[in-house]
Design brief:
mainly alpha, elongated
Length: 192
């Protein structure tokens, strides 16, 4: 069988006329335009942030001390972290290094500094143990013998101490001071 001749394909559609491009805009610099209040930190501000970080001032308070010279207003916490990241990170570390170095020097000549170093860095602790005789114990090996008179004496001393502490607490609670004159606590008579 013979094939029928096919019709030739239609001609492709003509291309639309080229559109005119608008005039090229000049490229602008990245960031904010000059004079728009963009923050540029000074060396003095960097030192101030490093010092504030070293002494532990929180960022929410630091922002009030750093002023944008163009807008004459404080900066935001985001701006503080963006422009002063290095100062915030290094301030406290450098202060710790200086304090540690000074303390280490002092340990050579000062016993108090050496003790402080040992307690903080070496976790040394002072342990004080006080042994009180048990007034109710009888026949405990190694315990001193306690007779009835000594038991009553120890109980009497314990009662007096408890009374003194309670009176001190009452006086402290009752004592209030004013700007003009301190209030006087009323002493109570001891009843025992």
């Amino acid at each position: 069988m013979k094939r029928k001749p096919t019709k030739p394909s239609p001609k492709p559609a003509p291309k639309p006329a080229a559109k005119r491009k608008p005039a090229a805009m000049p490229k602008r610099k990245p960031g904010r335009p000059d004079g728009s209040g963009a923050f540029r930190p000074t060396g003095e501000q960097r030192e101030m942030v490093k010092l504030m970080s070293a002494i532990g001032i929180p960022e929410r308070k630091m922002v009030h001390a750093i002023i944008n010279h163009e807008t004459k207003q404080g900066i935001t916490p985001v701006t503080l972290r963006k422009h002063f990241r290095e100062e915030l990170d290094q301030g406290l570390v450098q202060a710790d290094i200086k304090a540690g170095a000074n303390l280490l020097k002092l340990t050579e000549t000062s016993a108090a500094a050496a003790i402080f170093w040992a307690k903080c860095r070496l976790q040394w602790r002072e342990r004080v143990s006080v042994d009180f005789p048990d007034p109710g114990a009888t026949g405990t090996p190694g315990a001193p013998a306690v007779n009835e008179a000594e038991k009553r004496s120890m109980l009497d001393v314990a009662r007096r101490i408890a009374f003194t502490l309670s009176m001190g607490a009452e006086i402290a609670k009752a004592t209030t001071t004013t700007k003009d004159e301190p209030a006087k606590a009323k002493p109570r008579k001891q009843t025992a």
